[in-house]
């Protein structure tokens, strides 16, 4: 086994998560796209409604949430020994385990494994971690074509687009747009194809079936790994993933090290939490679990790549490590007012929405993504929706403090807060400033609010009104009564 130090930050170079356009700039352009906003609002509202229905059926939903959180905490506290146990069990059942410190090393390992088979095409099960490391692009540079088999991922790939959602990557596309993508880019597509969903699904099925039957190598991620038996699990809604996991001769699975859990009994908890939170289903239509290699049945070569890519650095942060509890259900995206209006592309990461706003800066380092922790109203809806009770609002505040420290110079916001703190430390100063603030009533407009302030406060009133200060302060009212 290659050694991996779970107490030291991993290498963070060459990561597709790093850098990008600041969120406020990208969000401003995204908000102006009314069609995309309409598509996302419709889809997230539908998912929220379905989720509310199936969650209400479970009498012990809150107990399940607590149990899921506790398993994740326990697993991360024992991550070093669970990973060793997982490797031992995979190897004992005929698999081979590889350890990757960062995206570049993982891509190199996978590229070499495919090269050994002689394949120039591979099929893929939907996987966030392969997007995180930019695997498709890395394989293309080595002359290997990766075919996405998840319907939504296929739409994104054919359109040369980027995913906008964790569970529904093409959520920003409506069915007319999908029909146009298929007829323009899908080999053999009917030019008269309608935008009826069953017709679109049938066209994709015909194309994908040919691709999957010819494949000799498949690449997958994993939703969970069970340490006690070395088993890997993938959940999906279409069945294409199961074909990829069973038909090819070689299966390569790439998994973030945080996905390991101790036992099968623990898996039972997440198989109740995940489908209800992700797609509003009582159970996943397809839950595929495989353990090692079985002669004459399924892939005859199985490789497991365990990826760090910033996860040990996140684990070392006592406040931020809770982000590693995430089971990629996207429930936080579906309730987030910011995500609903900007979509996923504005986040500049494969992990959009509230969880992306806390996970991406930790995986890359806050200096690479200092604006993402501000992509939130701190309304708390994400915490209420999270099936494993990740306190995203608290982590956002924590990361905002880190982002301010990284800048190394006062910002307008920090200077304003420092000034407020100075006034509030003295009753006399506080009373004086509250009397002065009453002068703000002179700035009111016809609607009885303050609609415009001079810089730097113009940044506030540029998108919202400011209520008028009261005619008298509380201290005045109290003394008069």
3D structure, described in words:
The chain is of the alpha/beta class and 481 residues long. It is 49% helix and 10% strand. It is built from 22 helices and ten strands. It has helices spanning 23-31, 34-56, 61-77, 79-92, 103-117, 128-132, 135-141, 151-158, 175-185, 197-214, 240-246, 264-278, 311-316, 331-335, 337-342, 353-364, 381-385, 392-407, 412-424, 427-437, 458-461, 474-480; strands spanning 96-100, 121-124, 145-148, 217-220, 224-226, 231-236, 250-256, 260-261, 286-290, 301-307. The strands form two sheets. The protein has a six-stranded parallel β-sheet, sandwiched between helices. A four-stranded mixed β-sheet has the order 8-5-6-9, sandwiched between helices. Strand 5 and strand 6 form a beta hairpin. Helix 3 packs across helix 12 and helix 16 (353-364) packs across helix 18 (392-407). The chain is globular and about 90 Å long. The protein starts with 22 loop residues before the first helix and ends with a helix. Mean pLDDT is 91; it is low at 1-14.
Keywords for this entry:
6-stranded parallel sheet; 4-stranded mixed sheet; 481 residues; single chain; alpha/beta; 22 helices
Separation, N- and C-terminal Cα atoms: 76 Å
- Average residue-wise pLDDT: 91
Biggest sheet architecture:
6 strands, parallel
Rg measurement, Å: 25 Å
Uncertain regions spanning at least 5 consecutive residues: 1-14
- Shape assignment: globular
Strand order in the largest sheet? 1-10-7-4-2-3
Number of strands: 10
Q: Counting H and I runs of at least 4 residues, what is the number of helices?
A: 22
Structural class: alpha/beta
Helix content: 40-55%
Residue fraction in strands: 5-15%
């Amino acid at each position: 086994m290659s050694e991996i130090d779970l107490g030291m930050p991993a290498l963070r170079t060459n990561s597709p998560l790093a850098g990008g356009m600041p969120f406020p700039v990208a969000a401003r352009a995204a908000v102006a796209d009314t069609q995309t906003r309409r598509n996302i609002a419709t889809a997230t509202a539908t998912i929220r409604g379905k989720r509310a229905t199936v969650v209400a059926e479970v009498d012990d939903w809150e107990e399940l949430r607590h149990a899921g959180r506790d398993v994740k905490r326990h697993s991360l506290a024992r991550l070093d020994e669970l990973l060793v146990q997982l490797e031992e069990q995979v190897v004992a059942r005929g698999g081979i385990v590889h350890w990757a410190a960062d995206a570049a090393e993982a891509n190199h390992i996978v590229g070499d494994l495919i090269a050994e088979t002689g394949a120039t095409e591979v099929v893929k099960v939907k996987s966030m971690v392969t997007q995180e490391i930019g695997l498709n692009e890395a394989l293309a540079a080595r002359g290997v074509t990766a075919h996405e088999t998840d319907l939504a991922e296929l739409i994104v790939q054919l359109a040369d687009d980027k995913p906008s959602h964790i569970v529904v990557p093409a959520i920003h596309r409506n069915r007319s747009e999908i029909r146009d993508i298929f007829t323009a880019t899908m080999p053999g597509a009917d030019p008269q194809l309608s935008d009826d969903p069953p017709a679109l699904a049938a066209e994709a099925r015909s194309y994908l079936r040919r691709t999957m039957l010819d494949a000799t190598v498949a690449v997958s991620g994993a939703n969970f790994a069970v340490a006690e038996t070395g088993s890997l699990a993938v959940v999906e809604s279409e069945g294409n993933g199961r074909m990829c996991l069973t038909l090819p001769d070689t299966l390569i699975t790439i998994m973030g090290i945080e996905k390991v859990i101790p036992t099968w009994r623990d898996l039972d908890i997440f198989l109740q939490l995940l489908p209800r939170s992700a797609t509003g289903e009582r159970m996943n239509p397809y839950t595929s679990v495989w353990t090692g290699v079985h002669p004459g049945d399924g892939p005859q070569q199985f490789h497991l790549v365990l990826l760090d890519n910033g996860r040990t650095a996140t684990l070392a942060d006592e406040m931020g490590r809770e982000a590693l509890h995430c089971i990629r259900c996207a429930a936080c995206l579906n309730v987030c007012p910011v995500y609903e209006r900007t979509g996923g592309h504005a986040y500049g990461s494969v992990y959009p929405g509230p969880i992306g706003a806390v996970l991406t800066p930790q995986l890359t380092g806050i200096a690479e993504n200092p604006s993402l922790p501000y992509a939130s109203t701190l309304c708390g809806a994400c915490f209420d929706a999270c099936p494993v009770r990740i306190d995203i609002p608290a982590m956002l505040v924590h990361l905002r403090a880190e982002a301010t420290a990284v800048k190394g110079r006062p910002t307008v916001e920090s200077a304003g807060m420092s000034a407020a703190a100075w006034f509030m430390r003295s009753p006399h100063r506080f009373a004086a400033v509250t009397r002065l603030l009453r002068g703000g009533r002179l700035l009111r407009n016809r609607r009885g609010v303050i609609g415009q302030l001079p810089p730097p406060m113009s940044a506030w009133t540029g998108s919202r009104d400011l209520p008028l200060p009261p005619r008298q302060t509380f201290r005045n009212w109290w003394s008069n009564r």
